[in-house]
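Before a colleague's protein record goes any further, I have to sign it off. Would you go through it and say whether the fold makes sense for this chain? Take the sequence as given and treat only the tokens as open to question. The record follows directly below this note.
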Amino acid sequence: MKIEDLLKRFQWEQIPNSTGRFTLSPSEKSLSVEALIESEEIEIKQYPSANPEEVIHVVKLEDGGLISYQRKDNKYIHTLNSESMFKRKQWELGIISFSPRQMPEEHQD
């Protein structure tokens, strides 16, 4: 599954002042991660949040990823991220332990 697949199926808005990051329309905040992905083949990982009122769901896509914040009332904030923004956001959340800025450039063959 690619970012484009989700962009076509749901109403996303670009996050202001960011390139490659989108948030799902607030009118769709009751949609679960499973409802967005609609695939049992794609792994959904869960992580604790610094905010005890939420759980973080992370889904790796072919060209980026989905990071969703589930609140205790079962409402979600879904963010769709390009590859570089997906890595950076995971690092900011403490999910991965290295800075994307320290990663070597990907070489095209």
Q: What stands out?
A: The longest helix spans residues 83-92. The longest strand covers residues 54-61.
